[in-house]
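In the design runs reported in the main text, the only information available to the sequence generator was the tokenized backbone. The following block is the verbatim input for one such run; it is reproduced so that readers can re-run the procedure and compare outputs position by position.
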């Protein structure tokens, strides 16, 4: 909501407009009002559900063979269902329906059931089974409503009518969105008593469901040692159903215990309810808005003009390889980089749109906000670029002459290091000091002086607030539609996610705004579509977020890059070398504790030593191998099973320029058939994949260093320049 205040007459000199200024006062983010009165105890109306599948050898499709659930109030009563009990039909849909029917009873009305990694796996089977039931019996017995984004269901509400014609409702949500780690890691962080059991997943198929005999071979237990296998698992009367029951019960108990501790800690230590947020960022925002927002006024940027302009100046962190090999290195992390950056001034609600028509441009020193500028980098230093640019190669930090949109603070920093900067136009905000100071300091101190589950909760809330402000201003819509309605949506709007569930049933998530160009592409009259929507009220009204502000997220990430660039320059000025960096971490041959002790410590914003490296191989973004001083190794390869790689593989990539085979775990999601197949596929890691900086080779053709890419002014095309 924008309130027009005033418009300053253009500054005109010799019949030419020199400067244009338009002032507006933006609405601001407010403390929300709860729909229901706050409770004096943590919610206990939740449970967990788990699904186990096998790969059908004939159809090569995954099918559910076990499913179970339990609730917080009945932790000792774990309900499990097995496909072998339905023998010989082996109909997985019937198995799922049996389980859901046992949950859709009055005592579980309004319960939330958490499923770990639900959106990428379990929910596909559940949603398909419910849809197939409705289709088979020609009714909407199960009424479903969901939030669907990027081909993933974030939330599914299912309800039926009871004998009294009243609804019984349950909701499925993904616990991974509030606790984004594996159950194994979470059980350690939360110090859970229940130990996750070992189970031979790959042994299960349609022919072994009734298996009873000697324990499956150790090859089906890849995480077990031979000694552990013989001591605790090997027996002559191993029963698959019995062992599966132990396994699924251990998973359910484990997740339930984790959520119980998480739920309790959120309420007692932070005065927020776990069940009132789908994601950890939403829970963090609830905490901030209710306890820390106070009289601070953060701009509610739900205007397309403002949002789109600042969006182009919203960049992520710096992840780059500088030198591919080094020895005797130090791997440093910043203590909570983004929260530390958020201690600096934030944009307020008073904003001026400024535009200069002179050669000099706007006066940068007088600005605070986001601006389009033309820049020219310092010719004498071609090693480090300071301003981010989005390209097909990813986010780069080039040298050259180019234009873009950046924060005023990042432009000031670049100018202080020798960049020529001409500011053309943009949004100038008032400054709001100390908005996040109390929130950040409270949570950081709690994290520093806590352990176990308490520390895990404090860390999650601390690190997941600030990105929430960067959401798109309009809430996408999710609908289950037939083919005719789908055609209309596709012909008038931007579709975010689309999946075919049955022959005439589609799950679609879309931006509710009618797009003129999409209407034109499909031969529709844009004006007629608008009028038709108004007459029939098909979409009712647009649903804007009332708690997002992209200016906040963009300013925080801008500050964070400045902090890291200051460290880069510091290292180079001290004669050190940089080998690799990833947003809040940096690998260098300098020992900070010997050069500037104040850089290292436990305090917020200081550096901590993560690894002491004997040898390091850095091949690409998030692809590296560290041989540590204690002889252990750390291997990172995004999307790749690190156990499929060795130190020699990284040596071969660097020294021999070899493509190295590796295993990547992939999932194939099929909504229309109702399954998700997970398998390991072999891929090739290429040593030539890294293109974000210009590589420098020695006389033997071995990659030894890099320099910044050269970016052509305004053209936005990458042009590599030899220096």
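Verbatim output:
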């Amino acid at each position: 909501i924008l309130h027009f205040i005033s418009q300053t007459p253009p500054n005109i000199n010799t019949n030419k407009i020199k400067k244009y200024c338009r002032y507006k006062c933006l609405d601001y983010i407010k403390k929300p009002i709860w729909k229901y009165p706050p409770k004096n105890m943590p919610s206990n109306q939740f449970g967990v559900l788990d699904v186990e599948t096998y790969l059908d050898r004939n159809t090569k499709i995954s099918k559910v063979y076990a499913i179970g659930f339990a609730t917080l109030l009945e932790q000792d009563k774990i309900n499990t269902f097995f496909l072998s009990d339905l023998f010989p039909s082996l109909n997985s849909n019937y198995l799922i329906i049996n389980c859901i029917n046992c949950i859709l009873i009055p005592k579980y009305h309004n319960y939330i059931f958490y499923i770990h990694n639900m959106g990428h796996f379990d929910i596909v089977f559940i949603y398909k089974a419910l849809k197939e039931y409705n289709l088979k019996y020609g009714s909407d017995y199960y009424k479903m409503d969901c939030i669907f984004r990027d081909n993933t269901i974030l939330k599914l509400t299912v309800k039926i009518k009871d004998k009294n014609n009243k609804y019984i409702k349950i909701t499925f949500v993904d616990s991974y969105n509030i606790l984004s780690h594996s159950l194994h890691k979470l059980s350690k962080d939360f110090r859970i008593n229940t130990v996750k059991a070992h189970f031979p997943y790959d042994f299960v198929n349609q022919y072994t469901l009734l298996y009873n005999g000697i324990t499956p071979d150790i090859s089906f237990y890849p995480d077990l040692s031979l000694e552990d296998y013989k001591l605790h698992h090997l027996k002559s009367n191993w029963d698959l159903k019995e062992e599966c029951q132990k396994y699924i019960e251990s998973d359910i108990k484990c997740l339930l215990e984790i959520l119980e501790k998480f739920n309790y800690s959120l309420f007692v230590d932070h005065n927020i309810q776990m069940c009132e947020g789908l994601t950890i960022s939403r829970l963090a925002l609830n905490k901030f808005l209710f306890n820390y927002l106070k009289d601070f006024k953060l701009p509610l940027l739900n205007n397309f003009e403002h949002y789109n302009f600042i969006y182009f100046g919203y960049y992520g962190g710096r992840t780059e390889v500088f030198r591919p090999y080094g020895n005797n290195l130090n791997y440093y992390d910043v203590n909570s980089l983004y929260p530390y950056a958020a201690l600096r001034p934030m944009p307020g609600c008073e904003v001026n749109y400024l535009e200069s028509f002179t050669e000099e441009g706007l006066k940068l020193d007088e600005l605070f906000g986001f601006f389009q500028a033309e820049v020219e980098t310092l010719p004498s230093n071609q090693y480090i670029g300071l301003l981010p640019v989005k390209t097909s190669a990813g986010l780069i930090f080039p040298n050259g002459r180019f234009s873009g949109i950046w924060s005023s603070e990042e432009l000031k920093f670049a100018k202080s290091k020798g960049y020529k900067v001409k500011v053309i136009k943009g949004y100038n905000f008032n400054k709001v000091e100390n908005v996040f100071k109390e929130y950040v300091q409270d949570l950081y101190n709690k994290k520093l002086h806590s352990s176990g589950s308490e520390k895990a909760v404090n860390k999650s809330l601390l690190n997941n607030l600030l990105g929430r402000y960067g959401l798109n201003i309009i809430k996408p819509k999710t609908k289950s539609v037939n083919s005719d309605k789908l055609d209309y949506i596709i012909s008038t709007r931007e579709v975010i996610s689309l999946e075919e569930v049955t022959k005439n049933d589609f799950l679609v998530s879309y931006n509710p705004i009618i797009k003129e160009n999409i209407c034109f592409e499909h031969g529709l009259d844009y004006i007629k579509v608008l009028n038709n929507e108004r007459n029939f009220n098909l979409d009712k009204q647009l649903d804007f977020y009332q708690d997002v502000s992209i200016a906040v997220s963009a300013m925080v990430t801008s500050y964070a890059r400045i902090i890291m660039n200051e460290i880069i320059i510091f290292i180079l000025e001290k004669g050190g070398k940089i080998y690799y960096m990833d947003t809040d971490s940096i690998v260098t041959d300098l020992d900070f504790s010997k050069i500037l002790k104040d850089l290292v410590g436990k305090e917020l914003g200081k550096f901590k030593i993560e690894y002491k490296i004997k040898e390091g191989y850095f091949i690409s973004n998030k692809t590296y191998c560290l041989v540590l001083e204690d002889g252990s190794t750390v291997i990172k390869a995004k999307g790749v099973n690190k156990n499929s790689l060795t130190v020699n593989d990284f040596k071969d990539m660097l020294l021999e320029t070899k493509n190295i085979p590796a295993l990547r775990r992939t999932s194939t999601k099929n909504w229309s058939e109702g399954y998700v197949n997970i398998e390991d596929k072999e891929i090739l890691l290429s040593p030539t994949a890294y293109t974000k900086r210009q590589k420098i080779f020695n006389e033997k053709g071995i990659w030894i260093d890099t320099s910044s890419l050269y970016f052509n002014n305004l053209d936005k095309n990458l042009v590599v320049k030899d220096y």
